[in-house]
Amino acid sequence: MSKNQKISSFMNGNRVSGEITFRNESDISVTITEPYSGLTGSLHIPYFARPYNSFLTEYGDATAMDLLKKLEQLGSYLDANQKFLALQLALHFYDGDFSNAKSQKRFFDSSFSFLVPLALQSQVVEMLR
Questions:
Q1: Taking the complete model, does pTM exceed 0.85, yes or no?
Q2: Does residue 1 surpass a pLDDT of 70?
Q3: Tens-digit pLDDT profile for residues 39-55
């Protein structure tokens, strides 16, 4: 797989599609395109681990598929819990200020039973608005 390559898999009986939007030895980014859109996940390999792993190898292929799976799980959770998340959004951002870091932390800590990576949090808030 290379940069700007379409990837897809079947997860829970549904086809999930995405695209590798950036890829080099140390960094990879994947965007989900189906059945959800608007979510992009990425990972970085620190310099001291690069002699052992590279995203330009099969390790990168497996990582891209894993990122796609995690994005699908997040999209599925957002879809299944729209009403609950809308209430939580109103509770934690009642003044309409979505930039407050403490409010964002409280929102994600109380609304999700799993960790939403910091890089994805702004995407999630934007989708829910």
A1: yes
A2: no
A3: 999 999 998 988 889 99
Q: Which of 30, 29, 12, 18 is nearest to 80 (CA)?
A: 12
Domain ranges of the chain: 5-79, 81-128
Residues 65, 9 contacting (CB under 8 angstroms): yes
- Are 68 and 7 contacting, i.e. CB atoms less than 8 angstroms apart? yes
Please give the torsion angle defined by the CA atoms of residues 59, 60, 62 and 63, in that order, rounded to the nearest 10 degrees. Answer: 110
Q: What is the mean pLDDT of residues 1-15?
A: 83
Question: For residue 17, which phi and psi values (nearest 5 degrees)?
Answer: -125, 155
Q: Give the residue carrying structure tokens 């608005």.
A: 129
Q: Which residues contact 50 (CB under 8 A, 6 or more apart)?
A: 25, 26
User: What's the token pair of residue 97?
Assistant: 């200020």
Instruction: Write the secondary structure of 68-83 as one string of H (helix), E (strand) and C (coil).
Output: HHHHHHHHHHHHHCHH
* Cα gap 97→83, rounded to integer Å: 20
Predicted pLDDT of residue 128 = 87
Structure tokens belonging to residue 29: 């980014």
